[in-house]
Amino acid sequence: MYSWSVAHYATVSAIASGGTSLFYVPIVLLFSRVLKVSDVSMAATGVCFSVGQLITCGLAYTEWLYYLQYIIGIPSFVGHVGIRTHLSKILEQDEVGKVFSFLASCEAILPIVGEVIFTKIFQWSLDFFPGLVYLTAAGICLCSVTLLVYCARITSHSYSPLEKENDSVCKDQAAANCSIVA
């Protein structure tokens, strides 16, 4: 579509990946310390940026839109951060390892399955709309946003505070009257 060589595409992808990684720590600090966004809200925000990136890439008929999709996708990694942080807060201590190992297994298997499915979609739509595969992925991500909103509603303040949170609450109250209700 853009008549790029393999070397040019590899260069653009490498610069985008390297540039994105420079923003990881500042964006997480912005969301968690400055904006004080909840874990589920952070996850939903990250997935929304992924949806924006996928839609832009699916509709990128000019080069500048292709570059723009990388910029839009910079904060998308906070989706993973928010989900994992939220899970670590709502799961029992002995269940965390099991759930995270299951997630790691899914993260290893799903790209293989997804590649087969998305390759078929791309081959089918190549002649009339090559960006359909990205819009399909955006639709799947929108399902994730819906699930995250549902999780936010059912788990709102249902996890036990961490020890650090307990200590800060205790310091604010009189030592004799300090009690945490889970």
Automatic annotation (TrEMBL):
<dbReference type="InterPro" id="IPR036259">
    <property type="entry name" value="MFS_trans_sf"/>
</dbReference>
<feature type="transmembrane region" description="Helical">
    <location>
        <begin position="128"/>
        <end position="152"/>
    </location>
</feature>
<dbReference type="GO" id="GO:0022857">
    <property type="term" value="F:transmembrane transporter activity"/>
</dbReference>
<keyword id="KW-0812">Transmembrane</keyword>
<feature type="transmembrane region" description="Helical">
    <location>
        <begin position="43"/>
        <end position="61"/>
    </location>
</feature>
<protein>
    <recommendedName>
        <fullName>Adenylate cyclase</fullName>
    </recommendedName>
</protein>
<feature type="transmembrane region" description="Helical">
    <location>
        <begin position="67"/>
        <end position="87"/>
    </location>
</feature>
<dbReference type="GO" id="GO:0016020">
    <property type="term" value="C:membrane"/>
</dbReference>
<keyword id="KW-1133">Transmembrane helix</keyword>
<keyword id="KW-0472">Membrane</keyword>
<feature type="transmembrane region" description="Helical">
    <location>
        <begin position="99"/>
        <end position="122"/>
    </location>
</feature>
<feature type="transmembrane region" description="Helical">
    <location>
        <begin position="6"/>
        <end position="31"/>
    </location>
</feature>
